[in-house]
């Protein structure tokens, strides 16, 4: 890793920070952001931290027309002794590059960008909230910027990192959700972009989400795009089921996103000696396990919620009430352990946390 | 249709126009563009024609993260007597709204927007090139602008129309292309976004195109995402085959774009009494027709090329040379007729052309 000199333009008038009970998700942004540009001659260049501001984009820029873009999502957490921790951020950098490969976007230097992110968080450390369940959400995103309507990979890109203090996902305490099994719309299919964290996989899902919302349900369970039989994901989370003492999650089949919370969940279950399998599982099989009393728990995993217990699954006209609509033991233990490690309350035996910036650090690092 | 008052801010210093042999595709943009905004209170509002310029977009704007966007592509042609014609533009406006429905984007008033487009073209009429094969490419696009990272439909949008003079698709005369049948990557699948003209369907195809380019082939033939057996599209065009005197094109199955040149091709073939069928056709069937000598022609249809004859199909390790690599009679007649109607050289018996603006019109319409 050869670090490029990073320029820092400080905002003159800092913003007022919102109260932690107003945060919500992704509504407020911090004082500064990170930017870096790419072109074929200079590769990734001009890394800089500047005041958070609108960017100027040509109306013909490829991002507006052909969706060549990738992003990541991770969080920084404030510990009780005012450390700021990141959770397995090297995995996000690695996945960003995997997504970029799929979308024909030039890869970044993972270590280098992680270092820039740490510098940005050091500058913005006062923005990391401290209330229970809150965190600083980190959104790296790469966009194609060529002002050119040809349907082909862009020759120029902008990489941005923006930061948003976010509220608790469970302001009223963790509560299982009701999920609609989607039979008509498809999120992703083998050979498509489902394994990449890219724009294409998100807004295409809004129609299915609308149908769930109309029925008063909070999210969608996606089935495979080929046979509409096998379970893939829930909303924008991976999904796990506890069946007869064993935990099962759909295997990475080429259309499922490789979640970092998914990976951490599998690793924790292994450490705990709870059997866990990555395999194909159909909705019909799950339905059978439900009716013979073997479906014990269901939950989603993702950066936003960490663990989201599923209380009800609505499949066609049947409602499957799981674990009497209560959070299960395994889901609870996973939630407490992962959020505990993230916030420094539970000892990190696995080396998952990385210090982003500490209160005692110089707030104007030599940039 | 109630037309809103449209504001016009004229560019002070007009750009120098490129020579028609330098045009290429989508590289040069005219002096002005059309903009219109949407919010929940005001619906679509503030239609305006302003100097072509970069727009200012918040880094958290939903377009950069979740790909909620739709677009269209059509062309204005200059006739020998200096009329400017559009080709079936009401179909583009209709399809824009169909795409918007799929992507949870508020629909536009089709007639109203067509009227605004005509005003924009009236202002930019000197940009419509006159050389053989050239035209003014028109790109309407809607982008989601909410500065909010929630995975949900935006509450605000910007609609833009930009114009680009484009060169001949066939500067050396119409020439059949070599196409690679793609077996690994998938363009679209039933239940996904394949029928919508939206960013998601384009950059996801770059990897497959890269593989074709590496083999010196110009485009990709897409198979269905479910069984990888049935033919769907070619590159970003619809595809037709002449087999034993009959023309066959894949039926609109929920993952194929409903092309306007496709529709015009089917209508012309019907007028000419050439049998044409929309039906499922597998690559294996096509291969069999090839080997028993019944595959007579293959061609793509789309706005950019109009008709693109296919000279060779490379499927796995076999090369299928179609019609000795020459353009077929039907493809040639379609090309001559459609481009003839578009440019006023062939009488428009079908009411397909709409006058966009004529040289004798006031170049400063009362806006």
Automatic annotation (TrEMBL), chains A, B:
Q: What class of enzyme is it?
A: transferase
Give a yes or no for keyword Transmembrane helix in this entry.
no
Listed CDD domains: BCAT_beta_family
Report which reactions are catalysed by this protein: L-isoleucine + 2-oxoglutarate = (S)-3-methyl-2-oxopentanoate + L-glutamate; L-valine + 2-oxoglutarate = 3-methyl-2-oxobutanoate + L-glutamate; L-leucine + 2-oxoglutarate = 4-methyl-2-oxopentanoate + L-glutamate
Q: Name one GO molecular function term.
A: branched-chain-amino-acid transaminase activity
* UniProt entry tagged with the keyword Transferase: yes
Return the Pfam families for the record: Aminotran_4
Instruction: Provide the cofactor list for this protein.
Output: pyridoxal 5'-phosphate
Q: Which residues carry this modification: N6-(pyridoxal phosphate)lysine?
A: 197
Q: In which pathway does it act?
A: Amino-acid biosynthesis; L-isoleucine biosynthesis; L-isoleucine from 2-oxobutanoate: step 4/4; Amino-acid biosynthesis; L-leucine biosynthesis; L-leucine from 3-methyl-2-oxobutanoate: step 4/4; Amino-acid biosynthesis; L-valine biosynthesis; L-valine from pyruvate: step 4/4
Q: Which InterPro entries match?
A: Aminotrans_IV, Aminotrans_IV_CS, Aminotransferase-like, B_amino_transII, BCAT-like_C, BCAT-like_N, BCAT_family
Q: Which family does it belong to?
A: Belongs to the class-IV pyridoxal-phosphate-dependent aminotransferase family.
| Protein name from the UniProt record | Branched-chain-amino-acid aminotransferase
